[in-house]
Amino acid sequence: MNQEGSIFNVLDYGASRDSKTDDTHAYMAAWKEACGATKDTPTLLIPSEKIFKLQSVRFRGPCKSESVHVKLKRTIIAPRKDGD
Q: pLDDT tens digits, residue range 4-63?
């Protein structure tokens, strides 16, 4: 779901932006494509709409591009320990 050259927006991968739904899968899918991109410098974009909820994640390489940018324009929250 590459758009605007090499920008990978987590919303395009199903992130819900409601601060209640676990968006980890969407973030990992966007990262996988960004890490595999070879055009320009890929950017993982976390846009300014709402708040995203994630479990613990690791964005790992090696990636095909020499570097990958992460552009965070909003808030990411962790779930509470009781599973909420």
A: 569 999 999 999 878 888 999 999 999 999 999 988 899 999 988 778 888 888 999 999
* Among candidate residues 36, 25, 32, 27, the one with its CA nearest the CA of residue 9: 27
User: Do 52 and 19 contact (CB within 8 A), yes or no?
Assistant: yes
Q: How far apart are CA 67 and CA 38, in angstroms?
A: 10
Rounded distance, CA 45 to CA 82, Å?
29
What is the pTM for the complete model shown? 0.82
Contacts of 38 (CB under 8 A, 6+ apart): 64, 65
DSSP state of 78: P
